[in-house]
Amino acid sequence: MAALDDATLDDLREALAEVEDKKPTQRLMAVINYLEEDDATMAEVAERYGYTGPWLSRWVGRLDRLADEPVEQVVYDDPREGRTAELSGEQYDQFVEALHESPEEVGLDAPAWSVPLARHYLAEEFDVEYCERHVRRLMSEAGLSWKTARPEYYKSDERAQEAWQEGFKKKRDNLDDEYTILTIDQTRQVLSTLIYAWFPEGERPSLPVTGAWDSIKLLGAISDSGETFFLPCEENFNSDTTNRLLDALQTEFGEKICVILDNASYFTANAVQEFVEDTPIELCYLPRGSPELNPAEECWRQLDQELGNRLFDTLDDLRDAALTALDRIEVPDVFTYLCP
């Protein structure tokens, strides 16, 4: 068991009775736990409170001052005389290393780094206080940049994808020559959305935007012969819009269609199953979490690239621009995705 030079366990317990805030309570409890448990390491005790060993080591030393100083001056975040002004070279290297890991790897409950979180880490780990502007600069020097994270979708098992592809090949072989194979998908384009742009240094540009979150919805289809079909929707996607799309696809490509689609609820609804019953429409649902198998996703990627950082005053302008862009896309080969 480690020992404090001046403050005793009784001093720590008395201080604990005087504090109410979460952080001071955690600090006192962690040090008390560590001093009371003969076989516990600092890292083990600190982990219970979501921190690392150096954090607890610093508080063991700091709380020794409870014997002579008021509780508020010791366990709260108020700066004290002699506080470290900046990171040492070794500490900076540790900070950079931490930034290139998930915050969870250094005991912080967050999925990704932010400036306030990095600032908190510096204060807790090294007792160094920097303003957010300086922390942002340090993060940039460490090789990090501010960007929007891609959402992490449920990932289908590779074996499930391979099994689906084998099953689809057999189904395709059993279809007669009159069938058209189609892949369908959906997207939403928001009015007046600026993604990112580059501007000359030293300028503070502004662009006319609206606060509206109006959007257009699109359902799209790609055929096995390289044809496309896009249907704008006024309302949110539902089983009724799916049925109208299937009806429009039959009008466009013939009665016999084999449609590959994802597992969105408006595609799998009972009303859709009832609609295709007793018709020559074949529905093939992709494995969950498998957008990479759907070539329609490539159409939306090209559409996003075409419309990105363009601002539109009205939904009609956005709709016209989207349909014009979709006329110019390079249509992907269906079987490159479905039967690689």
From TrEMBL:
SUPFAM superfamilies xrefs: Homeodomain-like, Ribonuclease H-like
**Which Pfam families does the entry mention?**
DDE_3 (PF13358), HTH_33 (PF13592)
| Tc1-like transposase DDE domain mapped to chain residues | 192-319
Q: Name one GO molecular function term.
A: nucleic acid binding
Recorded hits in Gene3D superfamilies, A to Z, give: Ribonuclease H-like superfamily/Ribonuclease H
What range(s) does the Winged helix-turn helix domain occupy?
A: 111-166
Entry protein name: Transposase
